[in-house]
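pinning this so it doesn't scroll away 📌
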Amino acid sequence: MENVFDSLKTERLLDLSHSAAAPLLSRFSYPWEALDWIKAFILELGNTLPQDEYDHPKEDVWISKEAKVAPTAYIHGPAIIGKGTEVRHCAFIRGSALVGENCVVGNSTELKNVILFDNVQVPHYNYVGDSILGYKSHMGAGSITSNVKSDKSLVTVSAMGEKIPVNRKKMGAVLGDHVEVGCNSVLNPGTVIGRNSQVYPLSSVRGFVPEGSIYKKAGEVVEKR
């Protein structure tokens, strides 16, 4: 019988072939263990990017020449914006953001200390902090990651009555590949959602949602058919 913690491991949640962060994430059993190293990894990777493919408009910021960045967007380094990605009006990238290829970072969306795999969409009024979003995951309008507990204690990841300590005060969410989060949902600190799962709009999610599931509300998680 599979240990529940196996379902939380990096290789079960994420296809690393769809992220430039693969060398970083492959070092860790659980993806959230990479959160402390995103900044250093971006700085290291950025300095190796080909100048004929990436602009370097300011210190520690690298933007693909094939990306589209609205003039009203703000990008603070370290940050990498991948090929084909669109950063829209008034997006606020606060730093330590590795944004993959063909992503959408939408109007008034805020990013901080994140890895967005290729083809991720956070298109409308999203906050994503201290989080990792897998390939082709999508956060509906107004959905956010809450990355600090109200009592400021250390975050844990809960799954089937068991808890894994994260050993950091800030962690938002890890979304597996092809996860769909409904509009105006809150992903509470330490949320992990397995591949191909769906979260209903207006949900407050906490802990682990298994792959191939539909999260309707707390206590009502059903298998996709």
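📌 and the second one:
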Amino acid sequence: MIVSAVQLRSSRNIEDNVKKAVKIIQSFNADLIVFPELFNTGYYPENYRKSDITPILKASEYSNAVIVAGAAEVDGNDLYNTAFVICKGKVIGKHRKTKLFPLTHEVETFKAGNRVDVVKTPIGDLGVIICYEIRFPEIARKLTKLGAKIITVPAVFPKDRIEHWKILLRARAIENQVYVIGANCVNGFCGGCSMIIDPLGRILAEAGCEEETVVSAKIDLNFVDEVKMRYPFY
């Protein structure tokens, strides 16, 4: 299975952000493509209620990939910071961010989600953690107990704490013995370093801290079971 983490330079221009994402879906022959948090609107509150994932749904109709894409979700008067799991033109699952970052506008802007579930997909059961939630090991542990062998992490993680990002991604992989795919933005605020990590904590692919790029790796979900049997730490 081929998995890809997309490192985007999300701007205030929603149309440009979406065009880049659609082009990636059309260009990359992967089984799983993970986009960053709020990939279409960027981390700009004035954009959130304009969020629309319809172009991604349409692009996915012609792709064999399962797509994880972070976007603002409008639900009546409420806004959620949500990661949508998409396949063949349909939303097959979603995760609403349960831990809102306290040092920015998130707490005032978004409503927190209250569920942590795996999403059943054609490539297996996926877990989703959004950015700040990577700091809470209980979330990753619950997803693993529910059967996730891959945990995806769409993020807008700041560059001044990017070493935390790198360590926490590997820690969640090591302690749960699963694959972890972190897709971060890259701009003046964010630090990139999108990563794909195996159940032993080894980095299979890593982006730099400045460039807009896509990193990919080949993974084998049977290796998750092999690691858990070989090293019965979980």
